[in-house]
Structure formats: C-alpha cells, structure tokens
Amino acid sequence: MMLSAKLMRDRIASLKKANEAAIKRRQRKKKRIQKQGVLIKGAREDLLA
User: Fold this and answer.
1) Per-residue b/e over 29-49, b at no fewer than 16 CB within 10 Å?
2) Containing H/E element for 1?
3) How far, in Å, CA of 39 to CA of 5, rounded?
4) Structural domain count, the chain
5) Which is nearest to 30 in space by CA: 49, 11, 47?
6) How does DSSP classify residue 36?
7) CA-CA distance, 32 to 24, in Å (whole number)?
8) What is the tens place of the pLDDT at every residue in 10-33?
9) What predicted TM-score, i.e. pTM, was given to this entire model?
10) Domain extent at residue 13
C-alpha cells in the first residue's frame, strides 16, 4: 500500500510538471501572436489554420 501511494504521488508530480510546461508554451504562443499587432479576420483565420 505504501509503495502504491508513493508511485501515485510521483505520477501526480510528473503530471503537474508537464501541465505547467504546456501552460507556459500556450502563454508564449499567445504573447507572440499578440505582439505582431492587430489581426484582421482573414489573417487570424490563417494563423489558426
């Protein structure tokens, strides 16, 4: 039982770390898009495609 709890804690810790990395990647992507200036509808759709 103790081993199972430790494995679960380790797994949760690794998932949290991966989640934080994914959040940072999304934030960087949003900032990069925002720094390029105002987007018109067509340009926005091109970026999202």
Assistant:
1) eeeeeeeeeeeeeeeeeeeee
2) none
3) 49
4) 1
5) 47
6) T
7) 12
8) 999 999 999 999 998 888 777 666
9) 0.51
10) 2-48
